[in-house]
Amino acid sequence: MEDFNSETDSDYTSYWRDWFISSRGNEYFCEIDEDYLTDRFNLTGLNTEVAYYQYALDLVTDVFDLDADDDLREQIEKSARHLYGLVHARYIVTTRGLAKMVEKYKRGDFGKCPRVMCEGHPLLPMGQHDVPNQSTVRLYCPKCEDIYNPKSSRHASIDGAYFGTSFHSMLFQVYPTLLPEKSIRRYEPRIFGFKVHASAALARWQDQFREDMKASLREAGVEAKFAEDASEDEELEDDDDEPLETKEEKVAGDAASGRMDLGN
Known about the structure:
Strand 2 (138-141) and strand 3 (146-148) form a beta hairpin. The protein is elongated and about 90 Å long. The model is unreliable at 1-14 and 258-264 (pLDDT under 50). The chain contains eleven helices and five strands, in the order H-H-H-H-H-H-E-E-E-H-H-E-E-H-H-H. It folds into three domains: 2-91, protein kinase ck2 holoenzyme, chain C, domain 1; 108-178, N-terminal domain of TfIIb; 188-224, no CATH class. The strands form two sheets. Strands 1-2-3 form a three-stranded antiparallel β-sheet, with no helix packed on it. A two-stranded antiparallel ribbon has the order 4-5. 49% of the residues lie in helices and 5% in strands. It is mainly alpha-helical.
């Protein structure tokens, strides 16, 4: 708000939404139509979630004329930002809101996917919760269908509830032509230009999976043996049944029996 300190109160309020949208860190937001903000049906239930609700709404809709001190004005300003974010989550799933967000998506205002195989595909903001103060905003890539943290700390502090959990899916339902083909390309490890043998990696994975499963069974108090373990135990039992001297005597006896048979 420093840019408007020199302005009058009327100028200060008349530019609030323009200031909010153009402020650094608010690039993910689109401008909400005034008729949407003035329709009380669209604001149902928000009066219980936002402090100084009426003053905050007046500030957002450019009719704020309260002669408040700096502390109160700061609290109202904070509530106005919160109110705008909550209304924004509702607005961007409307026809008009989706159209505005599509334009920002095409321009790449939300950033590019950091995954190399996605080749810089545009991202979309999304929330993991619809309830405020649960998690911050994430960025969804429709090509690899994964989510990422924003690079900028300004964006990383935005509440995810200001975009909601349904926006990105709703957008591609309304604009199916924007849905990219899924990427099936995967990085292939190589040594001196040759692919690493896949069966070796598979064998390592199978061994590790078996050891993890054994550990889980032991923790659960379940005794389970694998075929390999059973064969190893049998060999050990065979070795332990007879002492070394008995085996040597048996071998010598077998040899003597063989000579006797040959003599006959």
